Amino acid sequence: MNQNGDSSDARPLIGLDAVAKVFYTEEVETHALSDIHLEIPEGEFLSVAGPSGCGKSTLLSLLGLLDTPTNGEYLLDGQPVAELSASQRARIRNRHIGFVFQAFNLIGDLTVYENVELPLTYREGLGSSERKERTLEALERVGMSHRRNHYPAQLSGGQQQRVAVARAVVGDPLILLADEPTGNLDSRNGGAVMDLLKDLHEEGATICMVTHDPRYAEFSERTIHLFDGRIVEDEEHAGKAIEELRESGWEIA
Amino acid sequence: MDDLIRNLRYALRQLTRRPGFAAVVVLTLALGIGANTAIFSVVDGVLLQPLPYDDPDELVILWGDEGGIGTGSSGTSYPDLVDFQDQAASFETLAAWNDETYTLTGYGGEPVRVPLTRVTWDLFPMLGVAPAMGRGFTESEDRLGAPDVAVLTYAFWRDRLGASPEAIGSTLTADGRAFEVVGVMPEGFQWSRGEIYAPLVARWGEDFRGNHRLVPIGRLAAGVSIEEADAEVKAIAARLERMYPEDNTDRSAYLEPYRDTVVGSIRPTLWAVFGMVGLVLLIACANVANILLTRATERGQEVALRTALGAGRGDIARQLVTESLILTGLGGALGLGVAATGLELLRSTAPPGIPRLANVGLDAGVLFFALAITVATGLVFGLLPSLQAARRDLHLKLKEGGRDGGRGRGRLSQVVVVGEVALAMVAIVAAGLLVNSFVRLQAVDPGFEAESVLVVPISLPDDTYAAPDDPTATRAIAFYEEVERRVGALPGVESVASAYMHPLEGGWESSFSIPGVFDPPEGQRPEARLRPITPGYFSTVGLSLLEGRDITDRDAAAAPGVVVVNESFEKTFFPDGDALGYTVRRAQWWEGLPFEYEIIGVVGDVKMDGLDAEVPMAMYFSQPQFPFTAMNLVVATSVPPRSVLPAVQDIIWDVDAELPIENVQTLAELSSGSVASERFRTALVSLFAALALALSAIGIYGVLSYNVARRTRELGLRMSLGARTTDVLRLVVRQGMTLTGIGLLAGVLLSLVATNALATLLFEVSPTDLATFAIVAAVLGAVALVACLLPATRATRVDPMVALRND
User: Fold this and answer.
1) A118 falls within a domain
2) Coil, strand, or helix at residue A45?
3) Sequence spans of domains, chain B
4) Residues in Cβ contact with A244 at an 8 Å cutoff, skipping those fewer than 6 apart
5) Are B198 and B179 in contact (CB under 8 A)?
6) Rounded to an integer, what distance in angstroms lies between the CA atom of residue B776 and that of residue B698?
7) What is the rounded average pLDDT of the residues A109-123?
8) C-alpha–C-alpha distance, residues B152 and B168, integer Å
9) A66 CA to centre of own chain
10) How far does Cα A123 stand from its chain's mean position?
11) Residue B400: pLDDT band by 50, 70, 90 thresholds?
12) How far is CA B436 from CA B282, B486, B541, in A?
């Protein structure tokens, strides 16, 4: 994970300039995102909030190079990504982006260890011993190394999401994109996962998290609010620790 | 390498964790690949592989063409052969052969009847086949008076002579004549029926122009086309017709490629069966495609995830290709087993008469072909998830955790099912037509009662029973009288008689005239089947005498000539049914015996040329007046016919211990055997049609099951909104039956085109037989309904609460 303690004057890791995304379906134009200007400095913990259908997930898929903008420019680590080929985008996803999904998305036929190792297997020039070392280290970080030979179906939802987080960080990405990572979890497990993200951030990780849960937005340093595909509010706040949230009256197990 | 091992390990784990899926795919592939490989191996070995001779495409058969008299193709007489050899410039060589049967004695075993083929000395050199041991025939050995020499097949030398190295130079006794063995042909060589070959020599007194006992075969001269050669032989035949009107009137000639002569009759059957397995392969591929499409939906999310984690298309493709290759590899390996077993089964159950079947081996080319088709299917449909990974709904798929509609693939699956039903319809209609045809064939009245009659072929050697000192074969007549008298006295025997040929056999034809009724010049006379019989023959085989009287003991050699004709004969010449009393005149074959015969009776027709053929005209003579030595003893019994065989054999051997008794069958067996090839063809096609039906039912079931699983939430919602069980049932069944209906419609249209190819194989059934189409559509519809009902019943058990909570 890239180490960078102070985010305020750090270089921008992500820069979106006038980005728009339009979907065309059966003669209907849907403007999912319009005129998005956004910079995410290295080391920042950003949350994206807003009601259903406001464009949060579309934004995340653009940031994660799973989709391309209709208009505007996207710079990742200073480099434009618009003209990249599919294989170049795949390589960037593999090396620089880590995903955490609401639905965990672990592969049922792979063990915990194999699930976490998966992104490294797509990386050329990585020896098996190094792969093993990094996989075990990632599992240690999320406290799941003792379950490495289990299959996902044998784990609780919270445990599955911890494994998913391990998979997201195993490749030492520039940025972690989390799409409602607690959405399928109860509050106890959700809190544990948030703690994990917070720890990662404190170790220097840049995180962009979609959530519609205001409690978890409080963990981040900045929250942007989307409405009808536009950023309507950009609010900075000191990222709180879970204990602080509890103290301020949140019901967190 | 690391990648490969990981992909392999993952693929194997996937398969072992879903054994049902793997088993269905592998079995479907194995059946498709196996059936195709087995059948195409036969098609290839029998029809496509070149004949094992030098430049086999230059070999042609010269047929006599008696189109004018209505008997079609025939052989050629010895004098005509010599004229063709002298006059035709189109041939490099014009050889000939004819098949005979001899009784072999004194070789160390029981007397046996052995097929001996006489060949002109230049036949083997023309084919480019030299004996493996010893030598072939020389030109001088073709001449009258040359010493008898023989060349043996490898099988005869191995089985009868124990592969003795001393065989060359030894002597075989056939019909009392000594043949010196001069050569042994290579293993696998077989010409016509012969186990022994001897030079073809002209016969005094026998080889007149009207005796068409030879089949000439020629090799076209360099640069001569078959059309040019055909024109030349027709010109020569026309010349011979002018020169010899008494024998050659209305007689022409034509050439046929030798390959067509060998395989022509089996060709439509093999192509029909091959067409069927082709359909089975297509349906199998459709099923595999559908199963993989279903899997693709399940795998869509996994692929999306791998893509998000940085897997390139190549990584995904390699993973999926590995899985497809394992599946198709297993299917192919099992298919090879199915093919080997199937081929063995085919060889052991095929009726006699399929040429070159013994030489058929598993064909690597077709195995590769079938494997390639299925691998391609596996790859295309297996790779779909990776193609779809590029779609922009990737993120949505990841967000929804794979609970995707898969609507596009659902439609593709439905199209595949429609295609499958249509193909199955074609396959089952084809089988239905053949079954229908076979049932009609079996219902044909053969003209005789086949129950409880034993048929014992007896062939008396001419040197003993029709020797020069006994030209009217009185010893043969006495032999049959004696044997019949004693067999008739056996307990369980109801009646006994003898006849040349059995009721379902062809045999000799001969020309005749009816003075005062039909008396054209010689050469233009009609021909009819000859049937010398002994008294009681008609009642023994259950042939009904329609008019007049039967042949009796009184119709002896010295008595006035008599003949009983069949119904077809009477209808041809006596449409008013007044044949009795007229005289049939024939060439005189035996000095001192009648050559004019009074028609004393008319019997019913017998399907001599097979149940599906026209009945030829036939004349039944009293054996003493028409003394053939090779006859069938027919024994009607009140007990199981084979139970009297040992006693019958004892009587025959008591009269002549040297006689071979082989190929004894009951009339019922002969009757059943006469439709063996039709039965085999029908069984084979029905088997593949059943396979097609089962596979398409699995296809319908699979797609509907998948749809029900996909629509669980929708069904739950419908039920929560008040849909009853029957509504849900109807919803699912309607979907399946709509697909089936469209498939059936397409199948009818396809069948209308495809079944034309079967026209030559059908008996009294039109290729567009409405009843067959209707029944097949009903059967397929019923099977489809069952396949729909299973998933539909499952749909009715959806718990709305559970289904909706899953959302």
Assistant:
1) yes
2) strand
3) 2-46+267-442+676-805, 70-249, 461-658
4) none
5) yes
6) 18
7) 88
8) 10
9) 13
10) 20
11) low
12) 25, 45, 28
Q: Residue A176 is part of a domain; what is its CATH number?
A: 3.40.50.300
How many domains would you assign to chain A?
1
Q: Which domain holds residue A232?
A: 43-69+84-247
B 13-42 residues with CB below 8 A of A? Answer: 13-14, 17
Q: Is residue A32 part of a domain?
A: no
Cα(A21)–Cα(A24) distance, integer angstroms: 10
Residue B103: predicted pLDDT: 81
For residue A1, which of A128, A137, A106 has the smallest C-alpha distance? A137
Question: What is the spatial distance between Cα A207 and Cα B72, in angstroms, rounded to a whole number?
Answer: 93
Q: State the average pLDDT over residues B728-735.
A: 86
Beta-carbon separation of B395 and A57 below 8 A:
yes
Q: CA B229, CA B431: separation in Å to the nearest integer? A: 41
Residue A119 lies in a domain: yes
Residue B805 has pLDDT above 70, yes or no: no
Six-digit token string for A28: 């209907």
Q: Indicate yes or no: CB of A101 within 8 angstroms of CB of B314.
A: no
Nearest-CA distance A244 → chain B (Å): 30
CA dist B347 → B40, B44, B51, B361, B530 (Å): 14, 14, 19, 10, 36
Residue A180 lies in a domain: yes
Going by C-alpha positions, the residue among B138, B135, B95 that lies closest to residue B117 is B95
B290-306 pLDDT, tens digit per residue, is 777 777 767 777 888 88
User: In the predicted model, what is the mean pLDDT of residues B643-648?
Assistant: 93
How far is Cα B92 from Cα A102, in angstroms, rounded to an integer?
Answer: 86
DSSP structure string for B180-232: EEEEEPPTT---TT-SEEEE----TTT--TT---BEEEEEEPTT--HHHHHHH
A70 Cβ under 8 Å from any chain B Cβ: no
Query: CB under 8 Å to A147, separation ≥6 — which residues?
Result: A112, A154, A155, A159, A163
Q: CA angle, B760 as apex, B759 and B764 as ends, to 5°?
A: 70
Token duo for residue B255: 């050439």
- The torsion region of residue A107 among left (phi > 0), alpha (psi -120 to 50) and beta comes to beta
Sign for the pseudo-dihedral over CA of B385, B390, B396, B401? positive
DSSP secondary structure, B749-765, as one string: HHHHHHGGGGGGG-SS-
Q: Say if residues B370 and B335 touch (Cβ distance below 8 Å).
A: yes
Closest-CA residue of chain A to B391: A67
Say which of A86, A94, A101 has its CB closest to residue B398.
A101
DSSP string, B444-511: S--SS--TTEEEEEEE--HHHHS-TT-TT-HHHHHHHHHHHHHHHTSTTEEEEEEESS-TT----EEE
Asked if this assembly's ipTM is beyond 0.90, the reply is no
Nearest chain A alpha carbon to B302:
A107
Distance CA B268, CA B250 (A): 31
Name the 3-class secondary structure at A55.
Answer: coil
3-state percent helix, strand, coil for chain A, nearest multiple of 5? 35, 25, 40
